[in-house]
Amino acid sequence: MHYQGDSWGYYVPTRSMGSDPMERVVKLASESAVVIFSLSTCCMCHAVKRLFCGMGVNPTVYELDQDPRGKEMERALMRLLGNSQAVPVVFIGGKLIGAMDRVMASHINGTLVPLLKDAGALWL
User: Fold this and answer.
1) Does residue 11 lie in a domain region?
2) Among 10, 42, 68, 89, which has the highest number of CB atoms less than 10 A from its own CB?
3) Where is the Glutaredoxin domain (predicted)?
4) Domain CATH number, residue 93
């Protein structure tokens, strides 16, 4: 079930899944063309959501601070990225793009739009 959230794409409360947080992250990331793991109070998360919405993409957003198991998923994302900054984390077409720095680099070098088109998130 999707809930329209603020001006972003969709906020989706995570459903009960397996107990492994990494498994949950991978499953959730593969369910939509663009998935953002976020914290509702994070300014970088806000910026990446604005970027996608400004491009006409409606991402599925998982606000980890509004999920009872969000801390576990946040730790799994930190392991996945290999650093201490867990959010925002963006998946496009089920593939990990990375944190804000990787998303912005892809946007600047022109590789973000083709990724979004291939995933079916843009029809330009």
Assistant:
1) no
2) 89
3) 34-97
4) 3.40.30.10
Total Cβ atoms within 10 A of residue 107: 15
Is residue 69 in a domain?
yes
Distance of alpha carbon 86 from the chain centroid = 11
Q: Rounded to 5 degrees, what angle do the CA atoms 38, 44, 49 make?
A: 60
Q: Which helix (H) or strand (E) holds 95?
A: strand 95-98
What confidence tens digit (pLDDT) does each residue in 88-98 have?
999 999 999 99
Q: What is the pLDDT of residues 30-70, one digit of tens each?
A: 999 999 999 999 999 999 999 999 999 999 999 999 999 99
Place of tokens 């843009």: 122
Please count the structural domains in the chain: 1
